[in-house]
Amino acid sequence: MSALFQPLQLRDTTIPNRVWMPPMCQYSAAPEGPLAGVPGDWHFAHYGARAVGGTGLIIVEATGVSPEGRISPQDLGLWNDTQADAFRRITDFLRSQGTVPAIQLAHAGRKASTAQPWKGGAPVGPDAHGWQPAAPSALAFDERHPVPTELTTAQIEEIVGQFADAARRALAAGFEIVEIHGAHGYLIHEFLSPHSNHRTDAYGGSYENRTRFALEVVDAVRAVWPDDKPLFFRISATDWLEEGGWTPEDTVRFATDLQAHGIDLLDVSTGGNVPRVRIPTGPGYQVPFAARVKAGTTLPVAAVGLITDVRQAEKILANDEADAVLLGRELLRSPSWAQQAARELGDMGDSVRMPDQYGWGM
After folding, report:
1. Rounded to an integer, what distance in angstroms lies between the CA atom of residue 164 and that of residue 166?
2. Phi and psi for 20 in degrees, rounded to 5?
3. 173-185 confidence digits (pLDDT tens)
4. Band of pLDDT at residue 356, cut at 50, 70 and 90
5. What is the β-pairing status of strands 265-269 and 231-236?
6. Which residues pair with 299 in a beta bridge?
7. Pick from 157, 181, 235, 233: nearest CA to 63
8. Is the distance from CB of 325 to CB of 300 less than 8 angstroms?
9. pLDDT at 360
10. E strands along the chain, which residues?
11. How many Å apart are CA 320 and CA 272, to the nearest integer?
């Protein structure tokens, strides 16, 4: 059996293969009113197509734990039961196709309240359904973004509770795995990095203080998430700064902390916290960061970043650089990538499902 199509068991959940879909925002929910943050037909079709195509695990896009935690007013949310009820249609269908449904819970911090990317992605105000962002420190992301409100300790505690409440709703919605978004310059990452965290209280300064909020979120979610279900954490392994930022060494150290607090897999990405930083992109450019965590800890890891080719993906797993691969843009282009990969590798077994409606005629 190829490495790509070996099942992976985490706690009591068995993921049928190692071809996974990472969270990719669709910016396609209603921005306000009773349907704000509610998944609709676009989300059902979008995720359903990748499940039909054989993807082993689908992580639904960054989903706001509060209205203010959304990246854009059009983001999905899990701050009320109407949203949770609407997700059930999606999770039921994904499960019917043999795909494990997961969801990423997020708070955008100082990068919140922006327009949809195809409309420029600039910050928006109340006239476009926007709001005032909040962050660890009153430091704007860049010259386009407003200076965020610095969170009080009481507000930090409230957000920790919002993550836990969203996790409870994720369970009611039928998700098997929750991922906590700690990457890409959003709120948790903003606390982790000294570049964006200039606090002088218990949440800033030392490594222990800067990681405090993240671990409080993990503990709160783990406390309400069933012991038999996995919990993931997504991290930016580096800020791509020579000094003054979050580093790969910090990531390896933090991975051990996360595992001790009940995280079952680290989803390793990079960047997003510093504008216009130089990132040497290329095929698999983020894989070495996942490999570094895997070599330095016992925590399972997933790799992401311009993984597009079947043999490339197979080699990453075979070389023990990661335990799974996340294909983002490639799965947007090719919803049935998993089935195509299985055919290329001669491994069309139980680990990749071909729907009866298609398979009988193949």
Report:
1. 5
2. -120, 150
3. 999 999 999 999 9
4. confident
5. parallel
6. none
7. 181
8. no
9. 57
10. 8-10, 13-15, 19-21, 57-64, 100-106, 134-135, 149-150, 177-182, 231-236, 265-269, 301-304, 324-326
11. 26
Asked if 52 and 355 touch (Cβ cutoff 8 Å), the reply is: yes
| CB contact burial 200-232 (16+ within 10 A = b; e otherwise) | eeebbeeeebbbbbbbbbbebbbebbeeebbbb
| pLDDT, tens only, 196-252 | 999 999 999 999 999 999 999 999 999 999 999 999 999 999 999 999 999 999 999
Q: Yes or no: say if 316 and 284 are a contact pair by the CB < 8 Å rule.
A: yes
Token pair for residue 179?
A: 């991922």
Residue 112 to residue 58: CA distance in whole angstroms: 24
DSSP 183: -
C-alpha angle 23-331-311 in degrees, rounded to nearest 5: 115
CA distances 285 to 22, 103, 268, 269, 312, Å, are 16, 25, 11, 10, 12
pLDDT digits (tens, 9 = 90+) for 64-109: 999 999 999 999 999 999 999 999 999 999 999 999 999 999 999 9
Could you give the count of Cα atoms lying within 13 Å of 32 in the half-sphere of its Cβ? 8
Active-site residue list: 186
Q: Which residue has the tokens 């979120």?
A: 217
325 DSSP β-pair partners: 19, 303
Contact, 176 vs 167, CB < 8 A?
A: no
Eight-state DSSP code of residue 328? S
Task: Determine how many CB atoms are found less than 10 A away from the CB of residue 88.
Answer: 14
Tell me the C-alpha distance between 38 and 4, whole Å.
33
Q: CA-to-CA distance for 60 and 64, rounded, in angstroms?
A: 12
Burial tier of 278 (Cβ tally within 10 Å: 0-12, 13-18, 19+): exposed
| φ/ψ (deg, to 5) at 226 | -55, 145
- The single-letter DSSP state of residue 67 is G
Q: Across the chain, how many H-helices and E-strands are there?
A: 12, 12
